Design the sequence.
């Protein structure tokens, strides 16, 4: 069974974690499959990516059996370092994608699975979904998931989750900003697709430039961020889609994006 499914619905690319037997764990095989799929999507004409999962869990984090085998293997430090480096590169890849990435979370997202949600640009979750960085409960503080989580929600809330290992429900995740909204389980697919289609209807050239600028300026000082944003606005103003959008607004008609 392929660990990852990929199909397109018009301008929306769908990636589906498809390893329910291990709760869609981020094994090396899953990370490799995601890397390959994201390569294809980045070079495609897709305008939005939806990342969802099969089974009861969205993603249970790293594959603990695989990690234990590495720990007991001939090169534990090298193998574990490679795993965490590959995972870190994947998490950084998501905000660097030219298309907005939406997590569609139907079940539990734990440890690196919670990190995966935090690394996406947007997230919609079922009301029954739960989120946690619970490694501390088995003696493994979730230091790498903390990187993404601390950039998505307030630091004290992040540290409480890390230090207690407690799960938070979807409603609390929405309050903190980890997800955009929680929805009834039977509305999850429709709500996520509606968000994706809304974004896909916007001019793709401006969206790609805007996403790149948004993530770049977040890591800069206030003055640097304004310089970055001002340069992006100038570049944006010179796009053909922007000229069309402004003309359509002034002429009171629908725009025709390239």
Sequence:
């Amino acid at each position: 069974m392929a660990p990852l499914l990929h199909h397109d619905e018009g301008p929306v690319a769908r990636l589906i974690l498809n390893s329910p037997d291990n709760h869609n764990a981020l094994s090396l095989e899953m990370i490799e499959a995601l890397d390959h799929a994201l390569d294809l999507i980045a070079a495609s004409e897709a305008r939005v990516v939806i990342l969802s999962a099969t089974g009861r869990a969205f993603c249970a984090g790293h594959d603990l059996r695989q990690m234990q085998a590495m720990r007991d293997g001939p090169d534990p430090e090298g193998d574990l370092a490679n795993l965490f480096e590959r995972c870190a590169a994947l998490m950084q890849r998501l905000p660097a994608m030219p298309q907005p990435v939406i997590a569609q979370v139907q079940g539990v997202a734990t440890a690196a699975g919670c990190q995966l949600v935090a690394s996406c640009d947007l997230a919609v979750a079922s009301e029954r979904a739960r989120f946690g960085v619970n490694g501390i409960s088995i003696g493994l503080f979730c230091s790498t998931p903390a990187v993404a989580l601390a950039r998505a929600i307030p630091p004290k809330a992040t540290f409480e989750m890390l230090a207690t290992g407690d799960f938070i429900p979807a409603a609390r995740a929405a309050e903190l900003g980890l997800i955009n909204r929680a929805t009834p389980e039977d509305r999850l697919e429709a709500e996520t697709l509606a968000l994706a289609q809304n974004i896909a209807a916007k001019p793709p050239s401006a969206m790609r430039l805007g996403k790149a600028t948004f993530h770049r300026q977040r890591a800069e000082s206030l003055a640097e961020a304004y310089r970055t944003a001002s340069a992006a606005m100038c570049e944006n103003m010179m796009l053909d889609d922007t000229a069309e959008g402004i003309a359509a607004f002034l002429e009171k008609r629908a725009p025709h994006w390239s």
Q: What stands out?
A: Residues 127 and 184 are 5 Å apart (CA to CA). The domain at 4-200 is CATH 3.90.226.10 (2-enoyl-CoA Hydratase; Chain A, domain 1).
